Amino acid sequence: MVTAVSGANATTTTATNSTSSSSNGMISSDFETFLVMLTAQLENQDPLNPVESSDYAVQLATFSGVEQQVKTNNLLETLSAQMGLVGVGQYASWVGMDARAAAPSWFDGSSPITLSPNPVSGADGAVLVVSDADGNVVERTAISATTDTLEWNGTATDGSTYPEGLYTFQLESYSGDELLSTDVVETYTRITEAQGSANGAVLLLEGGTMISVGDITALR
């Protein structure tokens, strides 16, 4: 069951989430392959027609270059992880606040969940669809096509309370009987932890959902 809420105050924040990829595994594999090949060449060369010293010089130079590239990538990976930890400090103050994001929200069995629906342009009606952690639809409720925040109190039509757990909310936007769009509804969920990763800071929400900083559209 949902209840309309008048003007909720929220501080909007934006952030970017940088992504990076590492070829360290591939380089390490090539490095090991190079060692095996060079060793096999030394063991099986014809003693009457040995490899020219100039050829060995070239191979050893290649060996050195590959080794240096592996070390460089390991260093970059370490620096990236350290930068991720530094980023955590910026978001430590967010722990304990409610973040608005298009992510599953935790229902504790009593405290209502604040929803921030966003029906598409041209919609004159909407249906809120609530699903549990297993993807089962537990509720479909007709609501106004409005961007006003709503409170979902977890009460079924028979008066019983849904069990605690993660719930996902979707909004079906209608024009008359025509379905225009189905979109995930943003919800407010408590931030319990900030963590660092190679790709930057990530936030752990109540209930165990992990999101990137860039997924958050508002705080309160």
TrEMBL record:
Residues 106-176 form the FlgD/Vpr Ig-like domain. One of its GO terms (biological process) is bacterial-type flagellum organization. Keywords: Bacterial flagellum biogenesis, Cell projection, Cilium, Flagellum. It comes from the Bacteria. Residues 1-25 are annotated as: Disordered. NCBIfam families: PRK12813.1. Required for flagellar hook formation. May act as a scaffolding protein. Belongs to the FlgD family. This is Basal-body rod modification protein FlgD. It comes from Phaeovulum vinaykumarii.
